[in-house]
């Protein structure tokens, strides 16, 4: 009964004309900045903070939240259309989403991503409404050793999802970890591999790496083989998904939603991990894993659902503990504090209208997103028909502006150019950039928690197996690795025998 | 009315562009002189050298709103984070000394002036103070299931068991670490430092009891204390504070122990006196506005306006104090 | 065979590993209990070196040569040049002019682009950027030239 009362209160709050208007403004703006590469939700929210001073706090939070999940949504659009991951979680979407676009199925990919995200958003909203406090306790269960093991699992799945040589994928991942080392060591404060450059003290900007390795090297690939690019433009087959697409997608969406809802709760990269884990899971479960990386719809549906569910549940630690799980959440805490609301365990009782209004508005926002985006799909697909000699300078310029906007400086643009060179080298040497990016994102988390775990245990390595969560995760990682490596060793042995005889 | 707000920004941008374009076309020399007469004649900027949403960011945003009303010009808050706050501070110091660019300077930068091996800016030489804005306390917290009920319990146990307890901080060079190092050095304790990256995981591990003790902020800890997830032992200010209720000052057990984080604004050192005093007036006026004051106080902060000269000498004293703590605690410059 | 992709990739990884290890040795390594900042980089560096050698070995046994056309190199070079130019010019020339210059350099990557087309595309993108980033979003980005 209580639950019903709360939902009624939420509906009441969210359905006021002002709140609906600002919710729409939020998701609209979010989609727009999500589509513009590099422009992330953090600078946008920072830009809009002054506007929220004059607003009712509930309205302000509803709008800011809309910007956040709207941008998660928009990010996959550029990933699919131009192979440009705007957010760390949309790197996975590039893998098969852009391949689908290349095969003339951009519309299908966009539609499945949108529908999957909507479903995931709806479920995750219900999850927050029903289980927020208990999920927050789940987040508390995760200590340093558990985070370390979770990252190991994530990295193992990155190596597994490589479709080329596992050895090279492993090397790329390590290279990513090394790139992630650059900057100030968070445990000792020493600066590593910065060569005295102050701009490097905080490490390399993710967007610079992603643009270099994905967007810029994709442009070069397209320029060097104009013929294949023209095919993309002309060969747009079905814009909308058909029955078989839906049949292939619904299970990955369900699994992705579950994974995302759970992992999204973990502070610091839970949502990103969930989309990668979902991809690895789908590839493992698929009856045709060889299609992954060549435009498999399951490789879009699962991770997109996971990513969106994770974005939604990442509100939980902030709303229930006052602990922001990422940069955007920290901004939200800031926005609330400007209105003298301190988020924390008591917010549900103290500000019920805010809590339940936000939750209901999330669902409304997701609904708005789908209404807004489905008609846009046709337009996006038409965008692919724009002559490439107009498209590519446009992408280059917008990327540069996007990178500039992150810190308001040109340093990261230079970095992006350098990573572009590496990206080109990588594609020439048939190394995959995806494991590198994941290594880059998760490497710092891995080292930090590894060292912190050993600091806490005073040098006892057994802490990684005595913690039950960590132990299970490590076992899972080892099993995954065995499953993948064992057949390839067996195959190689067979090939060797065949050669000998 | 609120939607109006949404559009004044862009419209202003267009105007600014057209106006400055016209000036550029007509030869901008004459306009330079015209501008100097009435300060401020256009938009001002306060650089916050930290992430948006950080404590100092919120303080500046609250203040900027009030200052802009009094100066009759809008103030843009620009986040230029990185390098422990030193990158944004350095870029502000090297902007035109015309009063249009201000910067948030906090205890973090004072600490980093001694903590960094290569310091990109000399705050005392390159900046001059406008005003101190706020000071605030930190809260000594332990997990709810901890056996320590008071500051005395903790100090006694830590003294008898050197090297056994571990303390959490939100990072190397953070207020939390420096405060604990200061306490260690005053009482003669041996605690193991476990640094985190920001408050998120630090609070999680404190609540779960994976670390023994740590200093929390007034924006994060009180809620967790109230919910019974953490226990507060004491505060670092000399007087009891409203947000922290009955928590006693640590100085009761450790006479003379006082650490407060602080925030203020500065401008490039070459900024003329009359512009500084105009900015100072606007800022102190804004700080006496009951609404702004109330909002800052509800965040657990003490509003402490000061004269430009007072702020300069305060910054000087703080830099020396932390250099001393860093040296005595044996924290190596990185 | 000498320039097989895997041999080159292995060499590349080996160089990175060497740099990483050299950098790590200069840092405090520490012990498992008190890990210094160099502990983890050293581990990762050594691991990468081992894998790099394995990749090279594989490349020597079976490997396909790298294909690289002149046109590709030209395209790659000019795209990077365009990004570099953007970074360098933005603070001096302001957004619209920088965009024009960048577009010019980038479009040179495609050999068949005519000057007229370059100019029209450049102007439209510059206009778009000014309207979107300078005007509508009001990003703090330099718009006018200043030296």
Explain this structure to me?
The complex is a heterotrimer of chains A (501), B (334) and C (147). By secondary structure, chain A is mainly alpha-helical. Chain A has helices at residues 2-14, 17-35, 41-53, 57-82, 91-102, 106-141, 144-160, 166-181, 206-224, 226-234, 243-263, 270-285, 298-313, 315-321, 327-338, 347-350, 352-383, 388-407, 411-428, 433-456, 463-466, 468-500; strands at residues 183-184, 191-192. Chain A has one domain. In chain A, strands 1-2 form a two-stranded antiparallel ribbon. The longest helix of chain A is centred in the N-terminal third of the chain and has 36 residues, at 106-141. Chain A is globular, with a radius of gyration of 22 Å. The mean pLDDT of chain A is 84. With 334 residues, chain B is α/β, with parallel strands linked by helices. Helix content of chain B is 47%, strand content 19%. Chain B has 13 helices and eleven strands. In chain B, the strands form two sheets. Chain B has a six-stranded mixed β-sheet with strand order 2-1-3-10-4-11, with helices on both faces. Chain B has a five-stranded mixed β-sheet with strand order 7-6-8-5-9. Chain C has two domains: 1-68; 69-147, no CATH class. In chain C, 70% of the residues lie in helices and 0% in strands. The longest helix of chain C is centred in the middle third of the chain and has 24 residues, at 70-93. Chain C is flat, with a radius of gyration of 23 Å. At the A-C interface, helix 8, helix 9, helix 18, helix 19 and helix 20 of A face helix 1, helix 2, helix 3, helix 4 and helix 5 of C. Chain B: Keywords: Receptor. Chain B: InterPro entries: BUG, Bug_dom1. Chain B: This is Tripartite-type tricarboxylate transporter, receptor component TctC. Chain B: Belongs to the UPF0065 (bug) family.
Key words describing this protein structure:
heterotrimer, B: 334 residues, alpha/beta, D-Maltodextrin-Binding Protein, domain 2, six-stranded mixed beta sheet, five-stranded mixed beta sheet, 13 helices, 19% strand, disordered N terminus, C: mainly alpha, 2 domains, 5 helices
């Amino acid at each position: 009964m209580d639950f019903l009362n709360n939902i009624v209160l939420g509906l009441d709050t969210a359905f006021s004309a002002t709140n609906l208007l600002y919710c729409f403004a939020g998701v609209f703006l979010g989609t727009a900045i999500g589509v513009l590469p590099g422009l992330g939700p953090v600078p946008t929210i920072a830009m809009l903070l002054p506007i929220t001073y004059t607003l009712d706090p509930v309205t302000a939070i509803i709008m800011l939240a809309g910007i956040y999940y709207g941008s998660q949504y928009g990010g996959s659009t550029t990933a699919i259309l131009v192979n440009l991951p705007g957010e760390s979680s949309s790197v996975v979407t590039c893998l098969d989403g852009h391949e689908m676009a290349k095969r003339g199925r951009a519309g299908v990919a966009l539609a499945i991503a949108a529908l999957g995200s909507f479903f995931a958003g709806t479920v995750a909203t219900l999850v927050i409404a029903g289980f927020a406090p208990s999920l927050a306790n789940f987040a508390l269960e995760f200590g340093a050793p558990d985070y370390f093991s979770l990252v190991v699992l994530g990295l193992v799945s990155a190596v597994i999802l490589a479709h080329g040589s596992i050895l090279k994928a492993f090397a790329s991942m390590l290279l990513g970890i090394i790139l992630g080392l650059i900057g100030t060591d968070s445990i000792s404060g020493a600066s590593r591999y910065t060569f005295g450059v102050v701009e490097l003290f905080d490490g390399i900007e993710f967007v610079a790496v992603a643009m270099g390795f994905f967007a810029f090297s994709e442009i070069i690939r397209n320029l060097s083989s104009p013929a294949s690019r023209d095919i993309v433009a002309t060969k747009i087959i079905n814009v909308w998904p058909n029955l078989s697409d839906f049949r292939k997608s619904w299970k990955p969406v369900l699994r992705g939603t579950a994974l995302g809802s759970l992992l999204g709760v973990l502070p610091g990269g839970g949502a990103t991990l969930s989309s990668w884990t979902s991809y690895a899971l789908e590839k493992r479960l698929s009856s045709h894993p060889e299609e992954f990386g060549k435009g498999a719809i399951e490789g879009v549906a699962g991770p997109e659902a996971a990513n969106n569910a994770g974005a939604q549940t990442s509100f939980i630690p902030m709303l229930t503990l006052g602990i922001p799980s990422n940069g955007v959440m920290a901004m939200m805490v800031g926005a609330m504090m400007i209105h003298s609301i301190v988020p924390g365990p008591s917010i549900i009782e103290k500000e019920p209208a805010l809590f339940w209004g936000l939750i209901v508005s999330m669902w409304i926002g997701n609904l708005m997103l789908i209404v807004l985006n489905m008609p846009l799909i046709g337009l996006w697909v038409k965008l692919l028909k724009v002559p490439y000699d107009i498209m590519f300078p446009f992408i280059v310029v917008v990327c540069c502006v996007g990178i500039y906007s992150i810190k308001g400086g040109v340093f990261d643009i230079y970095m992006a150019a350098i990573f572009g060179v590496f990206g080109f080298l990588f594609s020439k040497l048939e190394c995959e950039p995806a494991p590198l990016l994941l290594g880059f994102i998760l490497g710092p988390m891995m080292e930090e928690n590894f060292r912190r775990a050993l600091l806490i245990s005073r040098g006892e390595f057994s802490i990684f197996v005595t913690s039950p969560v960590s132990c299970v995760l490590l076992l899972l990682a080892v099993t995954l690795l065995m499953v993948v490596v064992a057949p390839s060793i067996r195959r190689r042995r067979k090939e060797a025998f065949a050669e000998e005889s | 009315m609120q939607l109006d707000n949404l559009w004044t920004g862009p419209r202003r941008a267009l105007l600014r562009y057209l106006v400055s374009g016209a000036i550029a076309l007509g030869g901008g020399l004459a306009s330079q002189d015209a501008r100097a007469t009435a300060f401020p004649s256009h938009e001002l900027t306060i650089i916050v050298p930290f992430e948006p949403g950080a404590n100092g960011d919120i303080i500046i945003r609250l203040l900027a709103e009030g200052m802009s009303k009094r100066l009759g010009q809008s103030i843009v808050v620009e986040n230029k984070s990185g390098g422990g706050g030193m990158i944004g501070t350095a870029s502000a110091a090297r902007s035109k000394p015309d009063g249009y660019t201000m910067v948030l300077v906090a205890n973090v930068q004072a600490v980093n002036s001694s903590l960094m091996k290569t310091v990109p800016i000399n705050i005392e030489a390159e900046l001059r103070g406008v005003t101190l804005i706020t000071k605030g306390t930190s809260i000594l917290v332990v997990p709810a299931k901890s056996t320590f009920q008071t500051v005395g319990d903790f100090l006694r146990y830590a003294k008898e068991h050197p090297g056994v307890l571990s303390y959490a901080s939100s990072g190397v060079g953070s207020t939390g670490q420096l405060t604990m190092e200061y306490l260690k050095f005053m009482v003669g304790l041996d605690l193991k430092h476990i640094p985190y990256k920001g408050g998120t995981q630090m609070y999680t591990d404190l609540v779960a009891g994976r670390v023994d003790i740590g200093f929390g902020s007034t924006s994060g800890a009180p809620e967790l204390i109230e919910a019974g997830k953490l226990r507060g032992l004491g505060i670092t200010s000399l007087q009891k504070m409203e947000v922290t209720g009955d928590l006693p000052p640590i100085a009761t057990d450790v006479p003379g122990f006082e650490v407060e984080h602080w925030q203020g604004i500065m401008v490039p050192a070459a900024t003329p006196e009359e512009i500084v005093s105009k900015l100072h007036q606007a800022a102190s006026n804004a700080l006496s506005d009951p609404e702004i004051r109330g909002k800052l106080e509800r965040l657990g902060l003490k509003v402490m306006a000061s004269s430009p000269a007072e702020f300069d000498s305060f910054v000087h004293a703080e830099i020396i104090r932390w250099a001393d703590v860093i040296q005595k605690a044996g924290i190596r410059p990185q | 065979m000498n320039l097989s992709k895997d041999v080159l990739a292995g060499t590349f990884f080996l160089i990175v590993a060497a740099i990483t290890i050299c950098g790590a040795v200069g840092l405090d390594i520490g012990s498992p209990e008190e890990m210094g900042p160099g502990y983890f980089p050293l581990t990762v560096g050594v691991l990468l070196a081992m894998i790099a050698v394995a990749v090279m070995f594989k490349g020597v046994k079976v490997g396909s040569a790298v294909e690289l056309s002149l046109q590709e190199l030209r395209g790659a070079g000019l795209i990077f040049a365009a990004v570099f130019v953007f970074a360098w010019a933005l603070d001096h020339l302001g957004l619209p002019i920088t965009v024009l210059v960048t577009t010019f350099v980038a479009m040179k990557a495609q050999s068949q682009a005519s000057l007229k087309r370059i100019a029209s595309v450049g102007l439209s993108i510059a206009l778009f950027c000014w309207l979107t980033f300078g005007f509508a979003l009001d990003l703090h980005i330099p718009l006018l030239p200043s030296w």
